[in-house]
Amino acid sequence: MDTIASLFSFITTPVSWVIVQFHSLYGAIFGPDTGWAWGLSIVSLVVLIRICLIPLFVKQIKATRAMQTLQPEMKKIQERYKSDKQRQSEEMMKLYKETGTNPLSSCLPILAQSPFFFALYHVLNSIASGDTIGVINERLLESAQKAHIVGAPLAAKFTDSSSTVEALGSSITDVRVVTAIMIILMSLSQFYTQRQLMTKNVDTSVKTPFMQQQKMLMYIFPVIFAVFGINFPVGVLVYWLTTNVWTMGQQMYVIRNNPTPGSKAQAAYLDRLYKHVTHHGKARNRRERAIVKAIVAKGRDRNDYERKFINGLSKAGLAAQADGSVVKSEVPVATVTEDGTPATTVPKRQQPKRQPKSKRQSGGPKPAGGAEKTSSPSTSLSKSGDPEDAKPAGSAGKANPKSGGGSRSRAQSGQRKGPQRPKSSSKK
Question: Average pLDDT for residues 129-144, to the nearest whole number?
Fold first, then answer.
């Protein structure tokens, strides 16, 4: 650890100075020698560092999504150049360069936070050993050694011996119970953060090895924290637990308000956005307009959730514009099918009601405007005097095949009009 401390000695003094400034603030409220004053100083240090790392966190989100988008292309390169590792790496670097993606961008927050972590570890380790460091003089060193968090000294570790813990004014049972609880909470928060990312904010339509790796990390990271956590002082555990809780809350906010396209989180977000837009009849703020604008710009590249959102607006009498605004549409807007092509809503053609067989054989009622009209009184009287009309309709059709009723019955029964061609025997 001396080697690591020497590497990060340039940041040890700033970290100790920030802790002392927060301690002077909280010490005036809770007392300078209390665990609340020193514990809240460490928590405030975490919050300050994470606020400064928000731009890197945004880059991490963009880089992670870009890597998820490139996974299918990366898989093709790996299968194509399976036997040539050098060509495979060259094609990978070419793909990164063309798309402007950097695989290390997803690790930027962790890499940027590492110097502060090791500097805080060295500061607390010096407090435990009774050495002054940075701006922490002998008076502040004595105050920090007296500080206890729920009965555990700030510089005590799970692996410390009884004599070391008693020298800090506590018992080994209190130290191990407190450190064990904090290690469990630290591991659970890390597991929940990774699980939330995998179950809600991953494009489920793309199955790649990257997702399998993330699932493995979901179970490996908590174990790593549990193994190394027993060697961390209580103050470092406070630092790491606070940063895990911050990461979890920050990720929940991002998943809710800026989800990954194609993920379950996007489906929930677009459902909420649809309810808000249809209730108010417009996009309410700049963020909603930006989301609508991005969906409209995709065109045929929209996923299922985005097509469902656009179609829902159309059915509600609204239309999404290219600038992200939503206006009322008096003309029915074409919906979008699964392949992204517009589908106009045409009313279905009504099929005529099928008549019973007896009516079809008898000719049935004539449609208006037909060739023969039966509504004329003179025509009906002239036909009633014909002796052939006294016969039943079925027999009349059979007796006189040339009569109108018979021809009509045959035509409506699917037979062809006119004289029938005699059937010839088929030659086998």
Answer: 85
